[in-house]
Design goal:
- The protein has 436 residues and is of the alpha/beta class.
- The protein contains 16 helices and ten strands.
- Strands 1-10-9-7-8 form a five-stranded mixed beta sheet.
- The structure holds 5-phosphoarabinonic acid (PA5).
- The site of 5-phosphoarabinonic acid (PA5) has 14 residues, from loops.
Length: 436
């Protein structure tokens, strides 16, 4: 039988009654129609809905070819971008490549070291990045939908200059790849003038929904991730999460339950993982939901936590602090690898009671014990099960959350595809900087 992403709401069912879910049903159907008929607010940016089904195969092949070239030739590959032009690629690379990727030898990696830049304005970060990469053959993918965002533009100016010093303008032209709007923006103009190979961020796909476009796919290709499998998983997601009713669409059921919990005062959602390689998936998810729903003075605040690590820092608050939280655990059903716990004759550490068990088993019991404690402590728990970590399930997970997010935004009564609030800090910063 085929395994797919599933949702278990049993840890939240004490917080709402069946009829409350029934009241939501017509609203969910209406939200579904707005999404699929492209009739809702912001629908000009809802092109992600059928993107996995319509993405051009020739373009996918071009991405794979360029990715392969960079993989073979580069010693270092730097992805420059922020927000929706950064988090998707990073979440996939962190999840689907080795946990200590840059620490492996080139033979083990079969590709360049990979770094990120342009997602902060830190001179320390940039200086130390330059120290690490300056004597290596550096290739760059600069990603910016608008082509005007300050953070990546600054980092790009610095790194472009490094490559030009090393290889001249022509050599730099062979090492720099730009992913941006097809027609407008400073990056597009610059890339054309310098003759860089470019990739297009589709007009109708907003930044935080763009990981399955060249924005995320080129970095993934350089990291050796199988793009066909990513897109196959996303296409399967399109089928699995296409129904308008919550009985047949776990993505919508997730959106509906979080809306009910929000109505009960559960205004903070903690996306929890028990697998460190999911850390950046949590960061990607935070932008997806935070930027989509946090508007008009409404919305669930999305926070991500890494267990069991954070149980030793924030666990006290979750168990016993202010009761406005609910937890959504992203659980991986089949570990990529497992490790047997061996017996020791002296048993000085007192761990022999675990011998013949595995580390995954201990992690699973930590999850079960934690969920039980949190439910008893007044924190509703949702569980999203992912069969295993793979490109295919990464694609399916992305689509699961994107679909839930679109529907959930309409259910909340906001435009899930704009981000007017992001401009406020920029306006002040540019004024303070004296931008003409
Ligand atoms: O969603 C948003 O608007 C932002 O978070 C963007 O993703 C981020 O600012 C990057 O924008 P751009 O790709 O235009 O550089």
């Amino acid at each position: 039988m085929e395994n797919n992403i599933t949702l278990d709401c049993s840890g939240a069912e004490d917080y709402f009654k069946e009829h409350e879910l029934d009241y939501l049903r017509p609203k969910i159907t209406a939200a579904h129609q707005l999404l699929h008929n492209l009739e809702g607010p912001g629908s000009e940016y809802a092109g992600w809905i059928d993107w996995p089904l319509r993405f051009d195969q020739e373009e996918l092949q071009r991405i794979q070819q360029v990715g392969q070239k960079i993989k073979e030739k580069a010693e270092v590959f730097v992805i420059i971008g922020i927000g929706g032009s950064y988090l998707g690629a990073r979440s996939a690379l962190e999840l689907l490549t080795h946990s200590f990727y840059n620490g492996l030898t080139r033979e083990e990696r079969q590709g360049p070291e990979i770094y990120f830049a342009g997602h902060n304005i830190s001179p320390l970060y940039l200086t130390q990045l330059l120290e690490v990469i300056k004597n290596k053959d550096v290739y760059i993918n600069v990603v910016s939908k608008s082509g005007t965002t300050l953070e990546p533009a600054l980092a790009f100016r610095v790194l472009k200059s490094l490559i030009e010093q090393q290889h001249g303008k022509k050599g730099a032209g062979e090492r720099i790849f730009a992913t941006t709007d097809q027609a407008k923006g400073a990056l597009k103009i610059l890339a054309e003038k310098e003759g860089y190979e470019t990739f297009t961020v589709p007009d109708d796909v907003g930044g935080r929904f763009s990981v399955l476009t060249p924005v995320g796919l080129l970095p993934m290709a350089v990291g050796g991730i199988n793009l066909e499998e990513i897109m196959a998983g996303a296409r399967r997601g399109c089928e699995l999460f296409s129904k308008s009713d919550i009985e047949n669409n776990p993505s919508y059921l997730y959106g509906a339950i979080r809306n009910l919990l929000y109505q009960k005062g559960k205004t903070i959602e903690l996306l929890v993982n028990y697998e460190p390689s999911l850390y950046y998936f949590g960061e990607w998810w935070k932008q997806l939901f935070g930027e989509s729903e946090g508007k008009d003075h409404k919305g669930i605040f999305p926070a991500a936590m890494n267990f069991s690590t954070d149980l030793h820092s924030l666990g006290q608050y979750v168990q016993d602090g202010y009761r406005n939280l609910f937890l959504t655990t992203l659980w991986i059903e089949k570990p990529a690898v497992d490790m047997n716990i061996f017996e020791q004759e002296d048993n000085l550490d007192g761990l022999n009671y675990l011998s013949l068990k595995t580390i995954y088993h201990v992690n699973e019991k930590a999850f079960q014990g934690t969920a039980q404690a949190h439910i008893e402590g007044g924190v509703p728990n949702l569980k999203i099960s992912v069969p295993q970590i793979s490109p295919y399930y990464y694609g399916q997970m992305v689509y699961f959350f994107e679909k839930a997010c679109g529907m959930s935004g309409y259910l909340l009564g906001v435009n899930p595809f704009d981000q007017p609030g992001v401009e406020a800090y920029k306006k002040n910063m540019f004024k303070l900087l004296g931008k003409p």
